[in-house]
Amino acid sequence: MRLHVGCAMWAHAPWQGRFLPHPLPPAERLRAYASWCNAVEGNTTFYATPTRATVETWARQTAPDFRFLLKLPKTITHERRLANAGEELRAFLAAVEPLGPRVHALWVQLPGAFGPHDLGALAAFLRGLPPAYRYTVEVRHRAFFEDGGAARDLIRVLGGAGAEWVPFDTTVLFRSPPTSDAERDAWTKKPRVPRRAPALTDRPVVRYLGRDDVDRTVEGWGPWAEKVAGWLREGRSPTVFVHTPDNAEALPLARRFHDDVRALVPELEPLPEPVPAEPPTLF
After folding, report:
1. Domains, the chain, ordered by start
2. 283 pLDDT band (50/70/90 cuts)?
3. C-alpha dihedral over 164, 155, 245, 75, to 10 degrees?
4. Which residues form the signal peptide (predicted)?
């Protein structure tokens, strides 16, 4: 039984010197993060395919049971819209190969304009992916959340490929007006869709976006703690990524979510103690 938790990134300026040692060379930052969390979103791969040498440093900094959820590059998902992207896909797969089993899944994040009429392209794309990896799909078109027929069609496509539907739960963010600059910015950029919870596979993935207020973030994830506890009891292995608009407290919040689930499922192993931000002193 294992619950993976993490954040949207492994290097964030507000964490330096508070949660993570500072200064740290780039080749050590992921190692420090991995002492706090056992998973991370691979958002950087959305913007550009990393070099194989870079990915090899990621593997060296993480234990074999650490997990990456890596976004496919936007050239594949947003620019080519899953069509005629074989060359880009092959380059990406070759680059991430050094991670081996650390790749929890490859993540197909689709643009908001990708709707029910595009499901044929998604089905064809998923059929052409190598079976060595698992795949997760994030959709943002409101029809998939508000039209039962569209949702069933999407589930049918995903089920045929053994892929998971990744919910991005922003309901807590949009529950009341923003109170910080980061929240105001998030209001203009994040998808405003209903919460969706059912799992399609034995490895469900959740992206949860709270508020910059810690208490409101913790209060808002209550339904997810219950849902994740239920998945663990069913024998599933969930992964949960905790976001806030400024992400200043996301690192300890991810661990706190793990603790909240463990309170419901006591047999869940605790996370190891993180590396201290400052070396111990004699006095």
Report:
1. 4-264 (3.20.20.410)
2. very low
3. 80
4. none
Q: Are 254 and 5 in contact (CB under 8 A)?
A: yes
Long-range contact pairs involving 174-182 (C-beta distance under 8 Å, separation at least 24): 175/220, 178/245, 179/211, 179/212, 179/213, 180/212, 180/245, 180/246, 182/212, 182/244, 182/245, 182/246
> How many helices, marked H, and strands, marked E, lie in the chain?
12, 9
What pLDDT digit, counting tens, does each position of 226-274 carry? 999 999 999 999 999 999 999 999 999 999 999 999 999 999 999 999 9
User: d(Cα 103, Cα 42) in Å, to the nearest integer?
Assistant: 10
Closest among 36, 47, 2 to 249, alpha carbons compared: 36
For 2, 5, 154, 228, 233, the CA distances from 268, given in Å and listed in that order, are: 7, 13, 32, 12, 10
Structure tokens at 279: 């070396």
**Secondary structure class of 23 (helix, strand, coil):** coil
Pairing of strands 4-7, 39-42: parallel
pTM of the model: 0.95
Closest CA to 68 of 102, 108, 34, 92: 102
Report phi then psi at 109, rounded to 5: -95, 120
